[in-house]
Amino acid sequence: SADATVGAEFHDLLQGFAHILGGCARDTDLVARYSTDEFVVLMPQTTIAGATVFGERVRKRVAAGLDCVFSGGIVEVLAEDTPETLLSRADSALYSARASESSCLFQHNGKTIRRHDEEPAVEHLEADCQAVAEEPVLAATAADGGPDGLLE
After folding, report:
1. What range does the domain containing 117 cover?
2. d(CA 98, CA 104)
3. Is residue 141 part of a domain?
4. Number of folded domains in the chain?
5. Model confidence over 98-120: pLDDT tens digits?
6. pLDDT given for residue 92 in this prediction
């Protein structure tokens, strides 16, 4: 029947995906099926950047080996997180990735959700402001020739 065929294809897809996850995970990582079509990977001692490298590796292997779209949500544990808030943020990032209708990863840093390969505009702006704040300041006096003396 059609249901049996679709069920078998879905089972094969999940099995292939689980194999990819297991192949990308380290010995210290925990890979678990979370729901019908969702998995959770716990990665101790890993930053959001490190988890993104893992997610990108999985995304590329899925694209090369499975006929499906891969969406991933990535979070880093914050001091105030409970298991519920951590999973809630991961779900929010995952649903943002799914809404993009392309194979991609989204990160949730506790404040914002963004696609992993987009430049974080606010963080970039903050870095630029810090660089400007650290620029040397020169005082020009009349004895130095004033501001025009600096241009010479």
Report:
1. 2-136
2. 8
3. no
4. 1
5. 999 889 999 999 999 999 888 65
6. 95
Find the CATH number of the domain harbouring 25: 3.30.70.270
- Asked if residue 149 belongs to a domain, the reply is no
CA distance 72 to 24: 14
Q: How far, in Å, are 32, 48, 87, 93, 124 from residue 98 at the CA level?
A: 20, 19, 16, 9, 26
Instruction: Give yes or no for a contact between 30 and 54, defined as CB atoms under 8 angstroms apart.
Output: no
State the burial class of residue 152 (Cβ atoms within 10 Å of its Cβ: 0-12, 13-18, 19+).
exposed
Find the mean pLDDT for residues 21-26: 96
What is the CA 68 to chain-centroid distance, rounded?
Answer: 20
Residue 143 belongs to a domain: no
Q: Is residue 144 part of a domain?
A: no
- Across the strands, what pairs with 71? 104
What pLDDT is stored for residue 129 in this prediction?
55
What pLDDT band is residue 37 in, cutting at 50, 70 and 90? confident
Task: Please determine, for residue 123, whether its predicted confidence score (pLDDT) is greater than 60.
Answer: no
